[in-house]
Amino acid sequence: MVIRIARISFLVAALLVQGLAPGAPLKLDDPLPVGAQVKVGKLDNGLTYYVQRNRMPEHKLELRLVVKAGSILEDDDQQGLAHFTEHMAFNGSRHFKRHELVSYLQSIGVKFGADLNAYTSFDETVYILPVPSDRKEDLDKAFLVLEDWAHGLTLKDADIDKERDIVLEEARLGKGAGDRIQKVLMPKIYNGSRYADRLPIGQEDVIRTFEPDTLRRFYRDWYRPDLMAVVAVGDIDPAKAEHMIRRHFAGLKNPAHERPRVYARIPARTDNEALVVTDKEAGPASILIRYPVRPFHERETLRGYREQLIEALFAGMLNQRLQELSQLPSPPFIGASSALSRLTPRYRSYNAMAALGMSGATTAIDALVQENERARRFGFTAAELDRMKKTMLRTYERAWNERDKTDSAVHASELMRNFLEGESIPGIDAEYRYVTDMLPGITLAEIDAYAAKTIPADSGKLVIYTGSTKPEGDAAIPTGDQLLAAITAAEQHDVRPHDEKAVAAHLMDHPPAPGTIVDENRDEPLGLTRLTLSNGVKVILKPTTFRNDQVLMSAARFGGQSLFDDKDTFNARYADTIVAAMGLKDFSPLDMRKILAGKAASVSAGLGNNTDVVAGTAGATDVETMLQMVWLKFAGVRRDEDLYKSFIGKQTELARNRLSQPGALFGDTVLATLYNNNPRAPRALRPEDIPKIDLDRAISIYRQRFSSAKGLTFIFVGSFDVAAIKPLIATYLGSLPTPDIPTTYRDLGIRPVSGVVKREVNSGSEDRSTVSLTFTGPTDVTELEELRLSALTEVMNIRIIDVLREKLGLIYGGGMEGSMTRIPYSHYTVGVTLPTGPSNVDKVLSAMFAEIERMRTEGPTQADLDKVKTNWLQTYRKSLQDNTYWLAALQTSLTEGTDPGTILTFDQEVQKLTVGDVKRAAQRYLNTENYVQVVLNPETKTAAAQARNEAGGKPVKKG
Predict the structure, then answer these.
(1) If 0-12 CB within 10 Å is exposed, 13-18 middle and 19+ buried, where does residue 631 land?
(2) Burial code of 313-340, b = ≥16 C-beta within 10 A, e = fewer?
(3) What is the C-alpha separation between 804 and 397, in angstroms, rounded?
(4) Which of 28, 138, 232, 855 makes an SS bond possible with 303, Cβ 3.0 to 4.6 Å?
(5) Measured between alpha carbons, how far is 704 from 700 in angstroms, rounded to an integer?
(6) Distances from the Cα of 529 to the Cα of 523, 525, 542, 902, angstroms
(7) Which parts of the chain have pLDDT scores under 70?
């Protein structure tokens, strides 16, 4: 459960795509229809329901219970109880006793947190339940679960009291600089509205002391059918789903004396105000310029849909300009954006925001305001609009191509938004027609008029600076007066129209001289075609029908950063990032965005610890573009001193800022302790590391590894035809240079410490702690052992939730994960992370080690192991229809030297797993005489109180 605070080959001239033959001309004043793909209904009691059949994935149904009731509806004595009610939905109901619901759902393969979940926001609470749909009894119970959530929670006193500690632990997880800053900002962001006083997490004193009847009052008042929707999307007969909804929900009754469901009003700002909020643990400094909040309702007509396209085109073009500014040698900011954004379901505002770099707030404000003013006065260029139209068309084309391969959860989210926000649901067939029909007719004059109307010229605004109390470099903390003065000065600058530079129309003027395919063979069981090219490069092709417009690519060989000496540690680590930041071959990143407009293709090449890796993705019609990008990756490096300086400046600022955050020191200590301060062990970049990076040396290292494709095997998985792709592969991959280079890795001797090593880190001002345990050791890595280790961590996570969270109330989240690898030596790692309170650290450690000992001596229960196996088998069934899964599995088998055929036998190995296997894995991998323990505690016992006293905002108002 989490708390949340708070859609977008060109069509040939005659629209000859099957199923999209042109119909009658669109009438812009017609209402947006509800698409035929979904049945929307309403019961007599006012409950709304949505039913949609979708077979992706097969045998799965996505259920949602959506309640238009969140923290905004809480009475003063209920602050936090909307969220608390959400918690109680998993702790006892008419048909499921406390703990029974989660245990039952786990038994049918539904994983708590990853699958089964819920969230509470200001205006809604949503329950998420994905269930298998191939067994009638499971479906019946799933709808029973939703019914219980809607009106059958027992809310017993003892269960409520048991949950208080868990909710308080969740509240503890959210504490820190962000929380402290947010509480200062909320009254200003929401301009005195009720929203400012109704954060979903609530008030801790209320959570500790509320009477159970106070919670029951919230549930009775607001969990009622006229404020509810049931969403059912998946592999199910719609008539059957509708019948089950009626059977389970028609009997719900609204209260005799309904409280009115009122949406809080947010008044518009008329004056100018600046607010400076600092905190010693704050993240990167930022600026937000928020213009007056305005009421907003979703568009209901085709004309409104067209206006939405204009809005998206405008935002896309403006934000590309801001991105250009972030790539200057001395950029005014690290990153920035400007757009209309939604504040609540019924309000939105125009915002301009920036993450600040070394140039500080005034420079960023100047750039933000001037770029917005440039767009307001002079609009955009025809070339900018053409590129953005191409990009939008390709986006909708891909969505239409994947209309029968879109996951049910995506559709469910869209239907939820229709209920909560009024978002239209005409369906992708209709939307694709709207876009292809409307987009060509949207003129530059319309876009410019929209910009002039939308970007505020002279209105009340709220200017907010947030950052550390100790800024690094030359960027001083501004005062509120200085922020307002910077805005005024920027507004008075004379601006000129945007200077649009022409770029090449294509990545390559002509294709390279092709290589040839010298060998080809088939692997029928796996559906693979294996090729050997004339330059020695190898290729594996796996055509699929899992998606209609997706091709994934991967290649790897041994080498990577391990081949370079200690003095080149950071040059090797950042070589690929630096090269990518400067563009591709002869094109800058800006050039690339322009050239690739309307294309769906991307490629990356990089140095891992022990491997060189190339990865890419493309739409089905953009494979050649992807292959051209691969070829250019090996053809040379574009050296750009200015872009390099921009990159280094951003990295410097990020590295400096990281040091103020408590988690940074903790993470560094975990790694330093585990690897005994080995300089080659992985760790985050520090400010003192940056002078060790040299542009030309980084380029040289990149070219050493990526001037040759020797030893690479490229894997392609997705929607392509083998006969059609082979000539492209021969042309672009068969012509790659393959001079001799090392294709093995070097074992740098990085090994974890032995024995029991314990450290404590004191960092942070909040009353928060984190316990980290790391178990490591050498092992014979086999696929069976990897499976056993994974089973161990999964059953341990069930125990962690059952005992440390539900029984003892010591944690809200946390868990165990494990892995094995053969490279550079065969070993395993098991990590445990448990956030808690300082006073509970010893209890958490004691409980965790008790569960470890129990697993070592008794093993898991058969029921818990069966829960893991059932979830795995369902996930496996879905994964076999997923391109990403196949690509990862094939790449792993190549890198690790294992049999790819085991992809098809995973289910058999899962079925063979026994309680004894997991018990022996616990004895082997949870060695209580060999682990690293690091505990994060706050700096001092009184630090939390001091932080609360010191945190604050300094507002400055000007009418």
Answers:
(1) buried
(2) bbbbbbbbbbebbbbbeebbbbbbbbbb
(3) 48
(4) 28
(5) 6
(6) 6, 11, 7, 17
(7) 1-23, 471-475, 941-959
DSSP H or E segment with residue 141: helix 136-151
Residue 210: strand, helix, or coil:
coil
Please answer whether residues 106 and 112 qualify as being in contact, where contact means their C-beta atoms are separated by less than 8 angstroms: yes
CB-based contact 791:917 (threshold 8 Å): yes
CA distance 133 to 141: 11
Neighbour-count burial of 137, counting CB atoms closer than 10 A to its CB (0-12 exposed, 13-18 middle, 19+ buried): exposed
Residue where the block lists tokens 């009003």:
265
Local structure of 120: helix, strand or coil: strand
Chain-wide mean pLDDT for the chain? 93
How far apart CA 51 and CA 556 sit, in angstroms, is 44
pLDDT in tens, 863-898: 999 999 999 999 999 999 999 999 999 999 999 999
Peptide bond into 267 cis (omega under 30): no
Location of structure tokens 């250009």? 324
Dmax of the chain from CA atoms?
Answer: 82
Distance, in Å, from the CA atom of 711 to the CA atom of 564, rounded to the nearest integer, reads 19
Q: Do 42 and 49 touch, CB atoms closer than 8 A?
A: yes
Closest alpha carbon to 600 in 854, 390, 809: 390
Q: 152-191 as b/e, with b when 16 or more CB fall inside 10 Å?
A: bbbbeeebbebbbbbbbbbbbbbbbbebbbbbbbbbbbbb
Quick one: tokens of 525?
A: 């069981």
pLDDT, tens digit, for every residue of 277-300?
Answer: 999 999 889 999 999 999 999 999
Burial 445-466 (b: 16+ CB within 10 A, else e): ebbbebbeebbbeeebbbbbbb
Q: Which pairs from 22-26 meet CB under 8 Å and 24+ separation?
A: 22/437, 23/433, 26/302, 26/433, 26/434, 26/437, 26/438
Cα–Cα distance measured from residue 113 to residue 109, given in angstroms and rounded to the nearest whole number: 12
Q: Assign 402 to helix, strand or coil.
A: coil
**858-897 burial, b if ≥16 CB within 10 A, otherwise e?**
ebbeeebbbbbbbbbebbebbbbbbbebbbbbbbebbbee
Place of tokens 């239409």: 400
Per-residue pLDDT, 1: 39
Which amino acid is it at 389?
K
Rg (CA), the chain: 29
Compute the distance between CA of residue 552 and CA of residue 216 in angstroms, rounded to an integer: 51
Give the Cα separation of 341 and 473 in Å (integer).
32
The DSSP secondary structure of 182-203, one letter per residue, reads HHHHHHHHTTT-GGGG--TT--
pLDDT of 326-380, one tens digit each? 988 889 999 999 999 999 999 999 999 999 988 899 999 999 999 999 999 999 9
| Per-residue pLDDT reduced to its tens digit, 561-573 | 999 999 999 999 9
Report the candidate in 812, 715, 711, 726 with the shortest Cα–Cα distance to residue 770. Answer: 812
Structure-block tokens of residue 387: 């590129």
% of the chain beyond a pLDDT of 90: 89
Structure tokens at 514: 């092709």
Phi and psi angles of residue 760, each rounded to the nearest 5 degrees, phi first: -125, 135
Between CA 601 and CA 619 the distance in angstroms is 7
SS3 712: coil
Find where tokens 């006892």 sit. Answer: 92
pLDDT for 12 equals: 29
pTM: 0.93
Residues in the chain: 959
